[in-house]
Design brief:
Helix content: 10-25%
Distance between the termini: 46 Å
Number of helices: 4
Largest sheet: 7 strands, mixed
Shape: globular
Structural class: alpha+beta
């Protein structure tokens, strides 16, 4: 395996655990979706994204990241699935955040990390780690009253698959009104602590740019 990816995965996990993704509350991780442009549904700063991918060419097709749309009753647990398509055997690592309203509770496991189950896209993964980001928040998440969940996974070579990446679990408020829709978005984080990635052994920045600039958000609707 490319040592770069092992090191990046380890660094992502360590810094997330130590600093809650980022202890910087200046908003440097990203900015509001209101400022975003183009095809992406990502909760992202246009300026930050363009800075990170300045000079990277646009390509006609690439990986398609998306979040499913689901329903649940007030007080129940909603299952939120992350997907990737058009990427089979073309990627070797991802480090992804999703953001959700802070009235939802991301269910945690016995280690106080985000409870999750893996899908077929991670069948050949050799490691996967999750976290919940509900403290030391940047200004954009504070402003829009949102938290984030995180997953990073690595493969031995470009053996990442298509389909479901993972499922996160969210508790719906007991008093949620029927018809309420909670938006679940990808969240692009890039700072001195973390850098979101969707990459391969060739470190193909064009593929990564496509993945982040074409991702689609999801939702939870209260029944």
């Amino acid at each position: 395996m490319n040592n770069r990816f092992l090191a990046l995965a380890a660094a992502a996990v360590m810094t997330f655990s130590a600093a809650g993704c980022s202890s910087d509350s200046s908003g440097s991780s990203s900015s509001s979706a209101v400022e975003a442009s183009g095809k992406t549904d990502m909760f992202v700063s246009r300026k930050l994204f363009e800075q990170d991918y300045e000079g990277v060419n646009d390509i006609d097709e690439g990986p398609l990241l998306s979040i499913g749309k689901t329903k649940a009753k007030a007080g129940d647990i909603a299952e939120v699935r992350l997907y990737v398509d058009n990427a089979k055997d073309k990627w070797s690592m991802c480090a992804l955040h999703i953001t959700y309203p802070d009235v939802l509770e991301c269910i945690k496991d016995e280690n106080d990390e985000a409870k999750f189950s893996t899908g077929e896209a991670l069948d050949k993964s050799i490691a996967a780690v999750t976290q919940v980001w509900d403290s030391n928040l940047p200004e954009d998440l504070q402003k829009y009253k949102r938290f984030a969940a995180y997953i990073t996974t690595i493969f031995d070579g470009n053996t990442g698959g298509d389909g479901e990446i993972c499922t996160f679990y969210f508790k719906i408020p007991e008093n949620a009104e029927s018809g309420t829709v909670y938006d679940i978005d990808y969240y692009y984080s890039s700072n001195q602590y973390t850098k979101d990635v969707f990459s391969n052994d060739q470190e193909d920045a064009e593929m990564e740019k496509y993945a982040f600039s074409h991702c689609k958000s999801g939702s939870i609707t209260v029944e």
